[in-house]
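notes to self, project folder thing:

trying the whole complex as one job this time. last attempt i did each chain seperately and stitching them together was a nightmare. two parts in total, labels are on each line so i dont mix them up again. if this works i'll redo the older ones the same way
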Amino acid sequence: MLAFVAPSIDYHAFAPELIVVAILAILVLVDCFTSDYDKSSQSSVAGFGLLLALIPVVTLAMDGTVRGMFGSPESGYAYVVDTYSLILKALFLVSGYVVVLLSQTYIAEGDYWEGEYYQLLLASILGMMVMASARDLVSIFVALELLSIPAYMLAAWRKRDLKSDEAGIKYYLMGVFASAVMLYGMSLIYGITGSTLLTEVAANLRQFPAGQVPPIVVLAVVFVLVGFGFKVSAVPFHTWAPDTYEGAPTPVTAFLAVASKAAGFVALMTLVFVAFPGNTSTIEPLMFALSAATMTVGNLIALRQTNIVRLLAYSGVAQAGYMLAPLAVYGVSGTVGLQAIIAYLLIYAAMNLGAFAVVITAARKTRSGEISSFGGLIQYAPSLAVLMCLFLFSLAGIPPLGGWFAKFAVFRALVGAETGWGYALAVLVGINSVIALFYYARVAKTMVMDPAPDGDLSPVRVPFSLRAALVITAMVTVAVGVLPGLVGHFTDSVTIGAALGS
Amino acid sequence: MDFNSGQFWSSPITYAVFLPAVGALVMLLIPRQQEMTHKVLALITSLVTLGIGIYILTQFDYSAGSRLQGVVDTNWIDAINARYIVGLDGISLPLFALTLLVVPLCVIYSMDHIPAPGNAKAFLILILVLETGMLGSFVAIDLVLFFVFFEVVLLPMYFLIGVWGGEQRQYASIKFFLYTLFGSALMIVAFLALYFLTKNPDGSAAQTFDIRQLQALSGSSIGRTTQLLIFGGMFVGFGIKVPMFPFHTWLPDAHTQAPTVGSVILAAVLLKLGTYGFVRIAIPVLPEAAQSWAPIIGLLAVIGIIYGALCCLAQTDMKRLIAFSSVAHMGYVMLGIATLTPFGINAAIFGMVAHGLITGMLFFLAGSTKERYHTLEIRRLGGLLKSAPRMGWILGFCSMASLGLPGLAGFWGEFPAILSSYNPANPTRATVLFGWSNEVVFRIFMVLAAIGTVLAAGYLLYLYQRVAFGEPKEEFADDPHIHDVNAFEWVSWVPLLVGIVLLGVYPNIVFSVTNETVAPAVQQIAAAVGGG
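result (full assembly):
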């Protein structure tokens, strides 16, 4: 029997995760020693901790070397810190910070457990950060559970509210079901390739010549990817999303819609590009179908929504469809497609969090999630209405707001593939953008053109934390739209395969 | 400022494009209650922009109109090699100048005509943002930059129609938005296809959005069918904006419902973005595909002329009638473009400017009529020459100009366009229409277009007769609201009226600028196709 050899750990590479763990511990301690009636320190510590963890992310990015752990140069590594993982960790930390800003007043005023809320939130963010670096089936699974389980609880955080209970239980059941399917796929892959290390999986899968791939491989790949299809709410695995989004506390919804979805995409990208780079004949048709169905169904159902959160849920489903699209041509477009998805995730995070920030702020006055309750917003809260228009039209992809570049990047990956499937999907994305505009514009119409439903024109008080969240998201949305180079600068250098020596 | 220095911050074009946006930003910070401040600020901004424009006009080297001038070429989005390239040549200069002229006039008109429900701040901010988008579209020499500016105009127009429009404003505004967005979605896919498929002569991928380079390579490396498809994408994008039959159905609604100033800008400038797109991008970049598409474009243009005119005859609403007349007039512009001859394209550019001045003016008149009578239903109007004689005369003048009376601007847009279709490019080339040759097809178009002018005379005179002649109807006989042209109206109208006469008497002002550019460009197209 081999003696246990402690793996060498690069503490600089681990620093962001370690800081989040440390803050998590501090949060628990602070929770024990503060009064039950004043937990305001929790959100401050959590927010501060997330920003603190950004520092090593930046230093690692400036350093620029690819750091691998738990493996060897020959076999590849199970945990890798490269530009790909760093940019996504930064995304999770910043969007986590914005979610903390969104939560502050909502959770404090709603009489919910405050301490545990932030602790679970941080735990979930930790899972996402691990996910960004994980290059091993087991660590991917651990990261997935670490990010999901706190999220199940957070979804049910509005205790005493049946809808929130429903949100939590639905999310939990569907999530566990997805995990099970995925785990089964992973076990098959381990059985076929004899390794859980993604690079070795890829090397072993390559032994099957094209056209002679055993059905079991196809089954395994599809099961694993479908598992993440649930996470990113791809049609037909999206059914949990609207109910969960509507029932969960709105800041948690924002978190699920942005960070959790991004984490699902991260896992999908890692798996597709690192573990299954050669399985294009299986994955491309699957992703084509998923992407086409997701954007079309999401958009069509969104047309009928009357509740703003449900509308954003279905819009999020449709947006996931756009993000899946580059995977349908990943064999040809390669890194360009990867960069397109990452660019989309970054921009989507800003605009969607911004939209939720407006919804949360406006609901402080209207106490309603109905779209009709937004009537006359331009009269009593002009800046909120203008910001919401910004975010909505950015989601619709209208220049000069950030969303146009996200869509443009997707178009670029699809058209650049120069395949019939790529062109077809590009046209479908185009048509869907037009459908989507209709419901985004309808919300804008209500805010700008309709009168206030009860004639109440008293102003909305915007607390500082929400104001900060709105300013951050709006600035990113506009800046990226005018100077897309800002995002391009980061995403351009992102490669995933090369960093692993495969 | 050196006009040809090529630096981002030292080019007057950059200032002209972004100054309105800066003005809008400043206005954003001023409280809504200070209406007068907003009006003055908007006026100053648009006038200073006009001033920069006049400076550009004086610096422009008219003897070298075919060359892009005042070019700025700097990095913008490195990742996709999209660059901030702006510049002016003989094709864009007239439209650039038209935009610069129309916006301040609209601001002046708005001084005492902010439509219900008020809010001068938002109204004027949107107009200034619109100006940035329009000016940017006319100077952009990079496809992505063009696309961004092209879309920037959508949001302000959507809100202008949706908030300040007539009864059906919400329906009209979303219809306008959806139509245009559908077109531009296909357009951007077409642009990307150009980006990826265009190859340098040595076989390496060009990967550029620079219109100059794409024009030089003229798509020769792209397969024929693909070229036709890419052109089709751009055709839908620009065709919706023009609007060409059968994509025109958004226009009557948008025009009828838009507030006066919105209609004026829509007619005078926004529609030109579509035709300009054909002349600037679609045809030079894919000349071969343009040859194949030309008979279809010509056919749709002629259908537009006849159909638009027949619809005009059936209208009962003055504004809707003028809107349909736009469909017909833009048909002449497209017919000129479809001939692919220097003569036709010159006529088309002139037609754009003339239509901008005349139809813009007609929408001003419709707005002022609505303001006085609170209705635009033609059968309730009448006797304008009695109740407001000056306005009546101006309406008569504009109707004459619009129907193409020689000596006024409209004539030089229509007549040469019709004439040019007698001799289209590649006369012997067989077309998709029954295999007839280009010459035969376009001569048929010519006859039909000529019939269109007769119909135009019919509906415009009919309109004028019913609105201006006779006695005022009883319900408006002693209405104190019906007054003659006021000071703000005079100031905003006179420049347009002068322009209509000036271009009519001396059309060379425009032709001398455009011909310098169009003739070499068309020769290049002919050369690319292989013997014109």
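what i see at first glance: The mean pLDDT of chain B is 89.
need to look closer tmrw
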